[in-house]
Amino acid sequence: MNFFIDPYVFSLNKETITKKQLEEFIENLVDWKKLIDLNWGCVFKPSETFEVLFKYNLFPYIDNIKELVDKYDIDYIQPEEIDKIVNSILNKLPLLEDYCKISDILIDEDNLLALKDRNEDFTHIFKKLATILKIDCIINQKNDAENIIISNDILTPTIKFDALISIVDSSYKIDLPITINIEFSHFTNFNVFCSKIEPAIIWSNAQTDDCIRMAIYINIFQIDPAYNYIYGESKPNFSLHDSFFKSVQALNFQKDEGKINLLNRSICEEILSINMKDTHELREGKSGGSNQISHKGYSAWRRDVDYEYHLHYWKKGKDLVFTDIVPHNNFKITKI
């Protein structure tokens, strides 16, 4: 997954901000910093981020933060820590334009609805961000769903508008002018993202095995928020063996979102001990009296994914190791 931060997220107007808005500002900063530290998705910012924040005196300077924290009696985080987070995000994030290899564009017309409380410059940068992303997806045949925009104060669940583009400053060749239809998901913070994103989108656009793990963590969190493995603060009771990822690829559980949803549901239900009637012992022979397969203190199990596939895994106490997705007539399991 790729995340793109709208500069408006960092704007801090010390003259008008309320205590609730300041607390949301701090919470969102901390949340997105956690996402960056998890290092399973890439995060980018537009090149004009510093410029627009400085131009309108909306950069979250440490002195302004100190003044507001004192004013609203916020004691759960120090101003210096907020300043450290702001600078670590703004100074270290790579640029959207470098990632897309598009330096600039000219939007002649668009039908984006007015954005709440934003001046013309912030609105223009937001339009450019979404439009450059869409052009990159068109040129390089990328999936729109793998791109998530981080923003706030947008009332609709998706960013959706049409734009007529007459100039694209890039080494790519593209026939101009061009009218494009733009639609991307956006979220105000990482917690909302984890609560609302379809886990299959993360899984199907996975660039590493960690993305698949994150899709499972998020699915578990959506079923039962008490099980939060997302930030690594609590250790999951399961692991995914190398053979699991190989079978995911071999049986097309990597891109088919319907199959991904079925498999992810099966994994999460096993972890949360839901629908245990769908689980069966894996035995050494075909007869019901055969011994259950065991290895290194683990016992072998299978769970129905659907009418065509099983999920095979090892279990010892509450510990689980998922090893294989197999057709129904396959009763083999990879040793761990």
Please describe what this structure looks like.
By secondary structure, the protein is an alpha/beta fold. The chain folds into 2 domains: 2-191, no CATH class; 202-327, YaeB-like fold. It has helices at 19-38, 49-55, 62-71, 79-92, 96-100, 120-140, 190-196, 199-204, 209-223, 242-250, 257-271, and strands at residues 2-5, 42-44, 102-110, 147-150, 158-170, 178-187, 238-240, 279-281, 294-295, 298-304, 309-316, 319-327. Strands 2-1-4-6-5-3 form a 6-stranded mixed beta sheet. Helix 1 (19-38) crosses helix 4, helix 3 runs antiparallel to helix 4 and helix 9 packs across helix 11 (257-271).
Topology readout:
Elements: E1 2-5, H1 19-38, E2 42-44, H2 49-55, H3 62-71, H4 79-92, H5 96-100, E3 102-110, H6 120-140, E4 147-150, E5 158-170, E6 178-187, H7 190-196, H8 199-204, H9 209-223, E7 238-240, H10 242-250, H11 257-271, E8 279-281, E9 294-295, E10 298-304, E11 309-316, E12 319-327
Parallel strand pairs: 1-2, 1-4, 4-6, 7-12
Antiparallel strand pairs: 3-5, 5-6, 8-10, 9-10, 10-11, 11-12
Helix pairs in contact: 1-4, 3-4, 9-11
